[in-house]
C-alpha cells in the first residue's frame, strides 16, 4: 500500500535549497500547498495502514508507539539541525534526507495489501462463508482502491462500529485542544513570561526527547498489561493536567516542568490509532486512518478560530476578568471531554483479526 501511493511525493524543500529570494519562495509556497493537499496528511495515514497490514492486532499499539517515537526522534534531530546549521544548509540537508527516504522506500518496502492474488483484490471472508462461490475475476473488485470514498462512505465507516465512532469523537476533541495549544501557547508564553525563540526551541527539544524515550522504550512495556484503551485515557488525563499547569503558570519554570509530562502524554495518539485499526478490516486500514486524520484536521482548522481570539482577549486590558490563562483552561476542558469520552470506548471484537486475514490469504 505505502510505496504505490507515495509516488506523487516531491521534496519541495529543494526549491529553497537553491535560492530563498521572493520568487523562489512563492514557487515553494505554491508547490508546497499542492503537494501537501495530496501527500502531507496521507503519508502518516499510509504509514500506519502499512504497519497495520504487517503487524498483528496485539502488537499494533506498541508498533504505532515505536513509529511515533521514531518520528519524535526525527523531530529532535531536525530541530537541532535547524538551530546549529545555516539556513541554506538546513534546506539542503532536508532535501537530501527526503530523497534518501524515497530511495529507501522504493528499495526496501513492498506492497503490503494482504488480500491480493494476481493483482486482483480478494474479499475478507467471514466465518462459514463458501470459498468456492467467490469469483476472483469479478470486475468490481478491481476498482476497490481506485475510487475516492464519498461522504456517504465516510459516514458509513463511522457508523460501522461504536468503538470507531467514539474514537472519532475523542480524536476531534483531542485535536481541537492540540490545535488550540499550538495556536495559543506561544502567544501566551511570550506575553506572560517574555519567552523568546530560543526558549520555545528548548521546550520543543525537551518535549521531543522525552516523547522519543517514552514511545520507544516505555510504551511497548505498558501496552500488554494495561491495554491501549487505558493508555489512551491515561495519556488524555495527563495532557489535561499539563494544560491546567500552563493556564495557572505563576513562573517561567512551570512550562518547563509541565513539559516533562510528555512522557505520558504521548501515549494517547498511538493508542487511539491502534483502537481505530482494530475496528476496521484489512482492506480499509488506509480509509479508517484517513478518516480519523480528516476529523483531526477539521478540529485543527477550527481550533485557531476559537482559541486565538480568546487568548488575545484575556491577555489584553479589555479582558472581562483577570485570568491570562483562561483560553488554556478552556483547552483543558476540551481535553477533559476527550478523556470522559475515551472512558466509554469498550473493547469491541476486532474486525481485522488474524483469522480473517489468514482466511483471505488462503483463497
UniProtKB/TrEMBL annotation:
Q: Which organism is it from?
A: Durio zibethinus (Durian)
Looking up Pfam families in the UniProt record yields:
MFS_1
Q: What is this protein called?
A: Hippocampus abundant transcript-like protein 1 isoform X3
Identify the main location. membrane
Location(s), subcellular: Membrane
State the superkingdom. Eukaryota
SUPFAM superfamilies found in the cross-reference section = MFS general substrate transporter
What's a single GO MF annotation on this record? transmembrane transporter activity
Which PANTHER family does the annotation name? Answer: MAJOR FACILITATOR SUPERFAMILY DOMAIN-CONTAINING PROTEIN 10 (PTHR23504), MAJOR FACILITATOR SUPERFAMILY PROTEIN (PTHR23504:SF95)
Enumerate the transmembrane spans: 29-51, 63-85, 91-109, 167-188, 200-219, 231-250, 256-276, 297-315, 321-340
Return the GO cellular component terms, semicolon-separated: membrane
InterPro entries per the UniProt record, alphabetical: MFS, MFS_trans_sf
Q: Which UniProt keywords apply?
A: Membrane, Transmembrane, Transmembrane helix, Transport
* Membrane topology, from the record: Multi-pass membrane protein
Amino acid at each position: 500500500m505505502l510505496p504505490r501511493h507515495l509516488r506523487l511525493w516531491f521534496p519541495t524543500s529543494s526549491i529553497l535549497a537553491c535560492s530563498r529570494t521572493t520568487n523562489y519562495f512563492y514557487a515553494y509556497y505554491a508547490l508546497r500547498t499542492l503537494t501537501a493537499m495530496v501527500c502531507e496528511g496521507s503519508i502518516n495515514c499510509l504509514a500506519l495502514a502499512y504497519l497495520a497490514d504487517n503487524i498483528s492486532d496485539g502488537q499494533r499499539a506498541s508498533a504505532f508507539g515505536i513509529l511515533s517515537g521514531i518520528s519524535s526522534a526525527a523531530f529532535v534531530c531536525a530541530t537541532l539541525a535547524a538551530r546549529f546549521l545555516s539556513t541554506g544548509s538546513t534546506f539542503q540537508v532536508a532535501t537530501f534526507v527526503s530523497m534518501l527516504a524515497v530511495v529507501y522506500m522504493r528499495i526496501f518496502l513492498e506492497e503490503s495489501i494482504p488480500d491480493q492474488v494476481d493483482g486482483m483484490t480478494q474479499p475478507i471472508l467471514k466465518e462459514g462463508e463458501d470459498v468456492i462461490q467467490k469469483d476472483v475475476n469479478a470486475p468490481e473488485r478491481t476498482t476497490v482502491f481506485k475510487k475516492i470514498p464519498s461522504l456517504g462512505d465516510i459516514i458509513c465507516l463511522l457508523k460501522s462500529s461504536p468503538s470507531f465512532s467514539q474514537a472519532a469523537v475523542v480524536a476531534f476533541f483531542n485535536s481541537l485542544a492540540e490545535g488550540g495549544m499550538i495556536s495559543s501557547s506561544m502567544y501566551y508564553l511570550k506575553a506572560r513570561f517574555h519567552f523568546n525563540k530560543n526558549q520555545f526551541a528548548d521546550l520543543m527539544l525537551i518535549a521531543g526527547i522525552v516523547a522519543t524515550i517514552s514511545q520507544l522504550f516505555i510504551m511497548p512495556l505498558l501496552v500488554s498489561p494495561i491495554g491501549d484503551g487505558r493508555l489512551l485515557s491515561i495519556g488524555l488525563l495527563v495532557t489535561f493536567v499539563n494544560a491546567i499547569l500552563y493556564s495557572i503558570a505563576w513562573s517561567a519554570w512551570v512550562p518547563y516542568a509541565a513539559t516533562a509530562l510528555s512522557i505520558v502524554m504521548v501515549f494517547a495518539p498511538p493508542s487511539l490509532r491502534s483502537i481505530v485499526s482494530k475496528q476496521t478490516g484489512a482492506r480499509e486500514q488506509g480509509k479508517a486512518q484517513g478518516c480519523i486524520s480528516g476529523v483531526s484536521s477539521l478540529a485543527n482548522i477550527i481550533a485557531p478560530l476559537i482559541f486565538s481570539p480568546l487568548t488575545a482577549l484575556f491577555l489584553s486590558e479589555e479582558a472581562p476578568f483577570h485570568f491570562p490563562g483562561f483560553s488554556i483552561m478552556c483547552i483543558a476542558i476540551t481535553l477533559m471531554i476527550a478523556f470522559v469520552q475515551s472512558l466509554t470506548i469498550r473493547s469491541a471484537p476486532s474486525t481485522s483479526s488474524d483469522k480473517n486475514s489468514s482466511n483471505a490469504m488462503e483463497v
